[in-house]
Design goal:
This protein is mostly helical and 84 residues long. The chain has a domain at 40-84. 48% of the residues lie in helices and 10% in strands. It has four helices and two strands. It has helices at residues 11-19, 26-36, 48-61, 71-76, and strands at residues 42-45, 66-69. A two-stranded parallel ribbon has the order 1-2. The model is unreliable at 1-9 (pLDDT under 50).
Amino acid sequence: MKTSSAVYQSKEEKNGFYKDLGFGYTKEMFAKAIKGGYGVPAYNFNNMEQLQAIITACCRTESPVILQVSKGAREYANPTLFAL
């Protein structure tokens, strides 16, 4: 797996990092994981700092992830965050 530098040189580089995110179906994700012999973590987050840390780590390691959000976090967060 490819890893990225832990230090960003510019705001543009950091923003480009998050544009690499992709969405997929869990059926395909699990099929790849079974074939590749690895697991897919599912993380529950309660605030945006936790979400940012999860996304950053998964992007840096090019790892799949399932994001879970609690009811309380959904009620607290801006609705546009979950519009996807």
